[in-house]
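Re: the request from the purification team.
They wanted to know what the chain is likely to look like in 3D before they choose a buffer screen. I agreed to run a prediction and write the result into the notebook, where they can find it.
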Amino acid sequence: VQLQASGGGLVQAAGSLRLSCAASGRTFSSYVIGWFRQAPGKEREFVAAISGNGGRTYHEDSVKGRFTISRENAKNMVYLQMNSLKPEDTAVYYCASYRGPVLFTNRANYNYWGQGTLVTVSS
């Protein structure tokens, strides 16, 4: 499956953005989709993941209550709604995927990666 992330930009603190991840492939609903981010000089870290049918989600603690992952399988799309953004959310955001039922947070489990989209939150 090929992935294309979009929707990044510059936003003020406390603002909102919605990232989109467009996927190719006929078996999209068989894939877990995750969002990761990488800030300058830091390791790439897990943000959120969603199961193939959208029934299960997992969000990293620092974004719980602020970010929401969702998907529309009919459109081969996954979204990351980001509210109450903070300067520390500034990073390049990546969507990634693997085929399977279990939600993993380790990037080593993800086989396919899209290009990143930059989110900059100003204070």
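For the purification team: Residues 78 and 115 are 14 Å apart (CA to CA).
Please add any questions underneath this entry.
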